[in-house]
Amino acid sequence: MPNGGTLTIRSRNVNDAIQIEVEDTGVVIRREELGKPFQPFYTTKPTGTGLGLVSSKAIIEVLGGSINVDSVPDVGTRVTLTLPTRKS
Is 41's pLDDT higher than 70? Predict the structure, then answer.
């Protein structure tokens, strides 16, 4: 959030899962770019490999969870991570 803003972290139980939301009021991700952070080697930064979110998503999915990103202009971006609390 280069111009400041608010970072909010929430957690809650949803059925047999824990859901963690990380939300900010900083720079948004354009609608057409929402899927790209989970593509290998995609980055908007001058340094880095673009593999962080790809690796995170793979681990989360192996654990039976999911990760989603939503971004709304003039509001901010929300990342929602859901992980099961019980192994089926």
Answer: yes
Can you tell me the distance from the alpha carbon of 6 to that of 35, in angstroms, rounded to the nearest whole number? 24
Q: Tell me, what CATH number does 37's domain have?
A: 3.30.565.10
DSSP strand E in 15-58: where?
Answer: 17-24
What pLDDT score does 67 carry? 94
Q: What is the largest CA-CA distance in the chain?
A: 44
Q: Which H or E run contains 52?
A: helix 52-62
Residue carrying structure tokens 């681990």: 59
Q: Which two tokens stand for residue 41?
A: 């080697």
- The whole domain housing 37 covers 7-84
- Which has the closest alpha carbon to 67: 54, 50, 76? 54
* High-pLDDT (> 70) share of the chain, %: 97
- The dihedral formed by the CA atoms of 54, 57, 59 and 60, expressed in degrees to the nearest 10: 170
* 3-state SS, residue 48: coil
